[in-house]
Design goal:
alpha+beta; Beta-lactamase; Transcription Regulator spoIIAA; Jelly Rolls; 5-stranded antiparallel β-sheet; 5-stranded mixed β-sheet; 20 helices; elongated; binds glutamine
Length: about 625
């Protein structure tokens, strides 16, 4: 008998359970005792938590057991220092070189006295001194609020641990005074030391650590609360220093063996971050000789190897960036064209090429697209962004470069469905002045296609142009009718004029007449299920709409709106029924003409579907 699904854990959970069992016997190392209060923790506590950037949390063992964060706080307070002072000021005070020395070494750069990096105590105390706030309480609140935002819940301080370190932390106090001696800390170092001891005594559990790591992996936004914990531009410096310095004098081996930006603390916690994917928290308070959790290091090494997480083993793009590629020869806008225009577009279509893109755009994914554009012959390139999730700064710069190339060649670049502000926010600033006029943003792919057609047909936008009235005999519907028959038909038609914007046919109305456009343009519009509208087609003089009235009757399935001033003829269904009996040749010719235009539309749609699937 099989187990019910709820009793059968996910493969990830099962993996962590097994891992926890397997490593529970590893009891190497000793808990830290130099802070007296730390010596009291249960040495064999052991938790592993893995949190994804979309907020899924897998936990095993002592995942909710509270302990002090200690040095795991350092990258986060460094992030606060960056936010409060900017990079330049922080870089002046704290270096970015690994030391190869233990965490509590009094290692300052010869000459400047600058601590070598913010992950050793000296650099962390200097970072604490850079936290903004006019009072000690305000600076502490700033740190607690930020750490809480990273964890996604309010954190507090373990008072006993804080006092224990405050009363015994003479070495750190010495470092504080050295920093003052070199002018890295202004004035009395005691407030900065007090803040540092408190930040180290912040109480967390293993789950908090995994979520803090996942927040770093997620560009600074907590995966579950959605709250931003740090400005995204500071994630990179934080993770860089975690990579090179996060595990003290084990950092080189750590990158080699585990390959994840990480930070350890003498409380027994380790965080590890795989940018864009996940965060790991491990708790096991027995430390190795370098002050890193002995079992934590071993577990992280195993997880990284088993799940293939080393950051130098980056994921390959999972989908091709070009989802569909076609020219205007095979796919057109929903604007219906006269036969002459259609022939012109058949000939000119290859000059405009569309690339529907998908996925995230960065150097590796955009470069092949640019290569294809450059190799192609089109003079108009449409890039559609509907399915693009993210465009990084490098890709935006490459697009600006493409625009410059278009400008030099006299080509055009159409960017459709870009969601400006969200995607490509920085593009405008990157465009060279001569490239600005060759870039056109279009809100819909259909609008982009129509824009290309206008260019190819060299027709300016017709909106607002004075409608020219097409004689009835010249319309498609009357093809094959004698002059007499046209006259007889005309006698049965009703003529009407509509202002631009007027609703000529409304969805749900009875379909009781067919319309023939004598002048102006109309658009057929349907409501989309999720709200919003979509243009099905745009028609101009000589074209017919509402033809279902003569064939199926029933109700109108779409709205038809006048895009310009409109002049049209209508033929009522009941009048047509009478024509069928009294003038069968005339009626048959009308039906024949309707059918031939319908079959042309079907032919075009078939070619479009084939191009989109190809
Ligand atoms: N509070 C501890 C200290 O300064 C933090 C050290 C650590 O976690 N590596 O000694």
């Amino acid at each position: 008998m099989s187990l019910p699904p709820s009793a059968t854990p996910s493969p990830i959970q099962a993996y962590l359970d097994t891992l926890h069992r397997e490593f529970s016997g590893l009891t190497a190392g000793e808990v830290a005792t130099y802070i007296p209060e730390l010596a009291k923790v249960a040495p064999d506590g052991f938790g592993i938590v893995l949190a994804t950037v979309d907020g899924q949390v897998y936990e095993v063992g002592d995942a909710r057991h509270a302990f002090s964060i200690q040095s795991v706080s350092k990258p986060f307070v460094y992030g606060i220092a960056l936010e409060d002072n900017g990079r330049a000021r922080v870089e002046q005070a704290i270096g970015m070189e690994p030391t190869g020395d233990p965490f509590n070494a009094i290692s300052l750069e010869p000459g400047t006295g600058r601590p070598l990096n913010p992950m050793i105590n000296a650099g962390a105390i200097a970072a604490a001194a850079l936290v903004a706030g006019t009072t000690e309480a305000a600076r502490l609140a700033r740190v607690l609020d930020a750490l809480s935002a990273f964890a996604g819940r309010p954190l507090d301080i373990d008072q006993a641990i804080f006092e224990s370190e405050r009363d015994t932390g003479h070495r750190n106090r010495a470092i504080g005074h050295m920093l003052r001696n070199y002018g890295i800390v202004d004035g009395d170092p005691e407030p900065a030391l007090g803040l540092y001891f408190r930040q180290c005594a912040v109480r967390v559990d293993c789950r908090d650590l995994a979520l803090m790591a996942a927040t770093l992996a997620n560009g600074g936004v907590h995966p579950a609360t959605g709250q931003r914990a740090v400005r995204s531009e500071f994630i990179e410096p934080m993770l860089s220093l975690m990579t090179t310095c996060g595990m003290y004098d084990y950092s080189g081996s750590w990158v080699y063996n585990v390959g994840l930006p990480a930070k350890s603390g003498v409380g027994g916690g380790i965080i590890a971050v795989l940018p864009g994917q996940l965060g790991i928290g491990v708790y096991s308070p027995r430390l190795d000789e370098r002050g890193n959790s002995a079992r934590g290091v071993a577990v992280c090494r195993r997880i990284s190897a088993d799940l293939g997480l080393h950051f130098l083993q980056p994921p390959r793009p999972s989908v091709a960036t070009v989802r569909a590629r076609y020219t205007l020869q095979s796919v057109r806008s929903k604007r219906r064209r006269t036969a002459a225009e259609g022939r012109q577009l058949d000939a000119l279509g290859p000059q405009a090429e569309v690339f529907e893109l998908q996925g995230d755009l960065r150097f590796a994914t955009l470069e092949p697209v640019l290569r294809a554009v450059v190799a192609g012959a089109a003079q108009i390139t449409v890039l559609d962004f509907k399915r693009v999730g993210h465009v990084d700064g490098g890709a935006a710069r490459m697009l600006a470069g493409l625009a410059s190339r278009c400008a030099a060649l006299g080509h055009q670049l159409v960017l459709s469905r870009v969601r400006r502000g969200e995607l490509l926010a920085g593009l405008d600033a990157m465009l060279a002045p001569q490239a600005i006029p060759v870039v056109s943003f279009q809100p819909a792919l259909d609008a982009a296609l129509e824009w290309c057609e206008r260019r190819l047909l060299a027709r300016p936008a017709d909106r607002g142009a004075l409608p020219v009235v097409l004689p009835l005999a010249d319309s498609r519907l009357c093809r094959g009718l004698t002059a007499d028959e046209v006259g007889q038909l005309q006698a049965q038609l009703h003529r009407s004029q509509h202002e631009s914007g007027a609703l000529i046919v409304q969805r749900g109305d009875p379909a009781d007449a067919i319309y023939l456009l004598a002048a102006g343009e109309v658009s057929v519009i349907v409501d989309l299920p999720g709200g919003g509208h979509k243009r099905l087609s745009t028609l101009s003089a000589g074209m017919v709409f509402g033809e279902s009235a003569l064939i199926a009757g029933g109700q109108r399935s779409a709205d038809v709106r006048a895009d310009t001033a409109v002049d049209c003829w209508s033929l009522r269904a009941e009048v047509f029924e009478r024509l069928k009996l009294e003038q069968p040749r005339l009626a048959i010719t009308l039906l024949h003409n309707l059918l031939s235009s319908a079959s042309e539309t079907i032919g075009r749609l078939t070619a479009e579907v084939a191009a989109l699937e190809g």
